[in-house]
Amino acid sequence: MDALDASVPAISPRRPIGASVATFRALMGSGFRRYATYRQATIAGTFTNIVFGFLRCYVLLAVAAGAAGGAPGGYDARQLATFVWVGQGLLNVVGIWGWGDLADRIRTGDIVADLVRPVSPVTAYLAADLGRAAHALLTRVGPPVLVGALFFPLATPSRWQTVPLFAVSVLLAVIASFTCRYLVNATAYWLDDARGPLMFWTLGSGVLAGLYFPLRLLPDWLAVTLWVATPLPGLLQTPLDVLIERDQPALQAGLVALQAVWAAIMLALAHWVQRRAERRLVVQGG
Amino acid sequence: MIEMRELRKTFTVRVKAGRLRREKREVAAVDGVSLSIARGEMVGYIGPNGAGKSTTLKMLTGVLSPTSGEVSVSGLRPVPQRTRLALRIGVVFGQRSQLWWDLPLGESFRLLRYVYRVPAAEHEARLRRCRQLLDLDAFLDTPVRQLSLGQRMRGELTAALLHGPEVLFLDEPTIGLDVVSKQAVRSFLGELGRTGDVTLVLTTHDLADIERLCRRLVVIDHGHVVHDGTIEQLHARYGSRRRLVADLDVPLPPGFTLPGATMTSTEADGHRVTFTLESIAAGAAVAALVTAAQVRDLSVVEPEIEDVVARLYTDVSGAP
Questions:
Q1: CA B157, CA B143: separation in Å to the nearest integer?
Q2: What residues in B contact A3, CB-CB < 8 Å?
Q3: What is the reported pTM?
Q4: Is A9 a member of any domain?
Q5: Cβ pair B191:A117 closer than 8 A
Q6: Is residue A284 part of a domain?
C-alpha cells in the first residue's frame, strides 16, 4: 500500500476554519441525501400533513368565529389559517418528532463508530440534521401552503423585515429542536433505552411548541413563562408568529433574539451532556 | 507506537441480593494489562469471549476511559485527545458499521474525506488502491444497507484506511465472513503489513487470521495477559505435541505401549491409532511402531494452534 503509507506522518494540512466549514457542509449534504432517498415517505408524510391541516384549520376557525371580537389570542381568521398551513409545512422542517437514531446507536453500541471520528457527535449530528431540514424545506413546505392558499384566505407579510426574520427564526428553531431531541436521545447514555423520554417528548413538545393550538390562547402569565423558561415555543410558535406579524416590530425581533439565546444555551448543554456521557460511557456489546 | 501500563477497567454491576436490595459489585474487564507495541508490528490479540479484548481496544481508541493505568497511542492519550487521535488511527469494529447506512458506499468514502480532511489527491490514490485490492467497483454505487456482509466489511476496511492511519485497530474483522471474503481480507491486510509502516492490532476468534498475519500473539483471559510472544513460543510453552496417526492391518495387542508416547485414540475397531508424542522424536516413534505392528499407512500431524489455544483457555479459565 505505497500510497497509503507515503503520507503517514503528515496527516492533513491545517486550514482549520475552511476545512471545518467543508466538513460541516459535507455532513449536511449527507443528511439531505439520506432523506432524499425516501421519496415515498416524503409523499405519504406530505399527504398526512395536508389532511391534518384541514382538521386543525377548521377547528381554529370555529374557535375564531365563536370568540368575542373574532380574534382569539389576537389572531384574525387569515392569521390563524396561515398559522395552521405554514405550521403544517414547518412541522417537518423543525422536525420535533421521530428522531431516535442517537438513542438507538447508544443502545446497540454503534455509537462507537461516531466516537472514533475526529468530529464531535453533537456537531456531526447537527450538520446532518440541518441537511435533513433543508430537504424538508424544499419538499414539505410548499404543498400544504399551496393547498391552504387554495381553500382559505391566507395572510401575507406587510413589513420588509418579516421574511428575513422568519428565515433566521426557522434556522434557530431547527437548531433548538435538534438540541432538544439530542438531549432526549442522550438520556439513553444513562438509561440504556430512551423510549420513555422519547414518548414523553413526543407528547409534550407538540403542545408546548404551539402545534395543537397557538400558545397565545393561554393566559399571559403562562405564555410568558413558557417563552422565557423553556425553548419550546421557539420551535414552532415563534417562527409562525414572526411570519404572520402577530406582534409589533420590536417584539417580533425580540422573540427571535430570545430564540437565539435559547439555541445557544441548548447547544452548549448538548455539548456538556455529551462530554459527561463520554466520561461514564459503557459501550454496549462486544 | 502503543504503550499500556497496568491498564485496568472495572465495571460496576448490580447484583440482586434479596427481594429489593441490590448489591454493587466491581467486575474487572481488563485487569492490569501492560504491553508495548512498536511501529509496524502486527499483533494478534486473542482470548475467549468476555476476556477483555474489545474493552482494551475501546480504551486504546479513546472510547472508554481506563479506571486506572496509563495508555498512549501514537504519543497521544486516547480519551483526552480523542479527536486528534482519531486522525491517526483507523478502526474497524466487525460487528458495527461506520458507514452511512442509507447512502451508497462511494458516498460514504467521499464524506470520510471531508470528515478526516484528507487532500483530494491523497484520498483518490488510497481509494484507487483499495478499489483494486478489495474489488470494490462492483458495489460502489450500492447503498450500504443493501451490501452483503463480505462487501460491507471490505467497505469498512477501506473506510478505516482512507485517511492513512498510523495504527489500525481491527476488532474481529472476519467475523461471519465466508472463506473467499476472509481470504480477500487477509491478503489485503498482509499486503498492508508488508511495508511495515502501519501498526496493526487485530482481535479475532479465527486463529487462521493470526497465523497468516501476525508474528506476535497476545493472549488475554479474565483481563490478564497470559501469553505474549510468537506462535512458536506459544507451542513450546504450552507443550504442543505432534501426533502420530497410524492405520494398521491388525489391531495392536492389548496393553501395547510406545515408550515416550501415549495412545490418545483408537478408531475403526483398533485399525487406526493415534499417539501423542511426548518425550520421543517422531522418527524413533515411527521406527518403534513399524517393528511392533503391521503398519499400512502413517502420518505425523503438526500441532494445531486451535488445540493449543483451546487448552490455554480452559487451563486459565479453570484456574482459581
A1: 17
A2: 122, 125-126, 128-129
A3: 0.82
A4: no
A5: no
A6: no
Give residue-wise pLDDT tens across range B59-86: 899 888 888 888 999 888 888 888 889 9
**pLDDT tens-digit series, residues A57-87:** 999 888 888 877 777 888 888 888 999 999 9
> Does some domain include residue A37?
yes
Give domain status of residue A7, yes or no.
no
Tell me, what's the ipTM? 0.78
Q: Residue A56 sits in which domain range?
A: 16-279
- 8 Å CB contact of B163 and A13: no
Taking CB atoms and an 8 Å limit, are B163 and A11 in contact across chains? yes
> Residue A15: its pLDDT value, please?
60
Query: Which of A8, A37, A279 is closest, CB to CB, to B164?
Result: A8
